[in-house]
Amino acid sequence: MTIQEQIQEYIYSQPEKKRKDMQELHQLILEIMPECKLWFLDGKNSENKTVSNPNIGYGLYTLKYADGKTRDFYQIGMSANTTGISVYIMNISDKTHLSETYGQKIGKASVTGYCIKFKALKDINIEILKAALLDGLKE
């Protein structure tokens, strides 16, 4: 199965409202990053144990660990969670930037150092989310 097929299967496996929101978000991110590398992480580790929710990734970013090791990862990620959707913006080094810049403006969402979590797209300001995504592509 191709990455695009895995992504579509994952999105279509969600309940209807979440599926529609995730499809809309997927299209929005692809409009912002039309030529990006696509990722699909099934949430399982090398022993096939579930360690996270499956997630879709967009773009290419080099993660740097404290021990000096690096690995390729996505710049922007999206995942369904038990209550809604999480959007990950990995490329922002200042871990207070997202919450300070977008937390008060985005609507009903929880904003942390690299994650924006919300129940449904209707609960947030899409233009503010788009600005946060674009911000994550700058660094």
Distance between the termini: 33 Å
Average pLDDT over all residues: 94
Assess the beta-strand content as a share of residues: 15-25%
Which consecutive residue ranges, at least 5 long each, have pLDDT under 50?
none
Biggest beta sheet attributes = 6 strands, antiparallel
Helix residue percentage:
25-40%
Specify Rg, calculated over alpha carbons.
15 Å
The shape is globular
Helix-strand pattern, N to C? Answer: HHEEEEEEHEEH
Give the helix tally: 4
Write down how many β-strands occur, each being a DSSP E stretch of 2 or more residues. 8
Major sheet strand order: 1-2-5-6-8-7
Output the structural class: alpha+beta
Oligomer: single chain
Q: What would a concise description of this structure say?
A:
This protein is an alpha+beta fold and 139 residues long. The chain has helices spanning 3-12, 16-32, 97-102, 126-138; strands spanning 38-41, 55-58, 61-64, 70-73, 76-80, 85-89, 109-111, 115-118. Strands 1-2-5-6-8-7 form a 6-stranded antiparallel sheet. The protein has a two-stranded antiparallel sheet with strand order 3-4.
